[in-house]
Amino acid sequence: MLVLSRHRDESIMIGDDVVVTIVDIRGDKVRLGIDAPQSIPVHRQEVYEAIQRENRKASQTDPEATRDVCPPREPRLQRGPRPHRNDA
After folding, report:
1. Model pTM score
2. Which end of the chain, N or C, is less packed with Cβ atoms under 10 Å?
3. Euclidean distance between the first and final Cα of the chain, in Å?
């Protein structure tokens, strides 16, 4: 782990696209501003872990358990081409 010291309004670059800025320091709390492309998800660790748990749980769900929530669709009837109004 890299440990850096920064003062308020100073930043750290991660790669070419992510900037982490020290926004505020109050007692033992540090507020960070993170500027990253939308393609890079940014989450607090506890939120990230909750997302991962939910994703694992969803991937292990038996498809039969969700049948009542979202029943399979009936196949659509295939129709021939509709005649133009001028053809009738």
Report:
1. 0.62
2. N
3. 77
